[in-house]
Amino acid sequence: VQLQAFGGGLVQAGGSLRLSCVASGISFSEYHVGWYRQAPGNQRELVARSSSGGTASISDSVKGRFTVSRSSATNTVYLQMNSLQPEDTGVYYCHALQQQDSNFSYWGRGTQVTVSS
Asked: What pLDDT, on a 0 to 100 scale, did the predictor assign at position 83?
């Protein structure tokens, strides 16, 4: 199983980035997929998730600025991040969780997002 994340980088406050995570080795349609982030000194927190059925859930801290989507054709989950703020800085991790068995839980390696003020 592999989750490869792309799209991190350095952006000024107010800018946008789109993260992509390509999953391989899993039946993508059977997995809830999403994004977590971890800032230095903080715990990892859920940012957004797309259920196996395509229902999106967004953290209150980014609601209205971030959107999550998925493509079954390419086994990819996306995180569109708009109006980025310095507090959005952190390492963003892709996660996949099997819809019926939480023992099947996988993490990507993370991609750094840095927002300058």
From this structure: 98
